[in-house]
Design brief:
This protein has 152 residues and is an alpha+beta fold. It has a single domain, classed as Roll (Nuclear Transport Factor 2, Chain: A). The protein contains five helices and seven strands, in the order ααβααββαββββ. It has a seven-stranded mixed beta sheet. The longest helix has 21 residues. The protein is globular and about 60 Å long. It comes from Caenorhabditis auriculariae. This is DUF4440 domain-containing protein. It holds the Pfam family DUF4440.
Length: 152
């Protein structure tokens, strides 16, 4: 008897499921809307990184952010992430970043960008990769909640 109750949740369950689907659809952003909301923050991120203002980079990351290098490492917290950026720029010398082939998508309080990047460095040459950043609504703006990349 218990198993049949679990398997047949009835119309109330289906209605709740349908309502949840509709809510997600209403919360979804078109790709253009996602880009319009997030691109100014992404451009500011790249500009600050290119200026070498590592201390300011702390403002771009959520307090519970993570950075993942696929298959290699994971950092938790904005302090650890910013320290990693500082270390990279110390080891590589003057570093600038360019992004290309960017795609934006969003739902609710989360918008993500998936893009190719090139770090042009003084000591290590060009370092190419691909990243996915999930930005989370944070006050009046967005901060990076998940930053995942792979070097190519």
């Amino acid at each position: 008897m218990k198993s049949s109750v679990l398997l047949n949740r009835g119309p109330k369950h289906q209605t709740r499921k349908s309502i949840l689907k509709l809510q997600l659809i209403r919360m979804s952003l078109t790709n253009q809307e996602a880009q319009q909301k997030l691109e100014p923050f992404v451009n500011d991120y790249v500009e600050k990184l290119n200026s070498g203002d590592i201390n300011y980079m702390n403002n771009f990351y959520h307090k519970e952010s993570v950075m993942v290098e696929q298959g290699k490492s994971c950092l938790y917290g904005k302090e650890a992430i910013v320290e990693s950026l500082r270390q990279m720029m110390t080891e590589c010398g003057k570093t600038t970043m360019q992004i290309s082939n960017s795609q934006y998508q969003g739902v609710g309080d989360f918008i993500h960008i998936e893009t190719d990047f090139v770090f042009q460095t003084e000591k290590s040459g060009d370092l190419k990769g691909h990243y996915l950043q999930i930005w989370r609504k944070d006050g009046d703006g967005y901060t990076i909640y998940h930053d995942e990349y792979q070097m190519i």
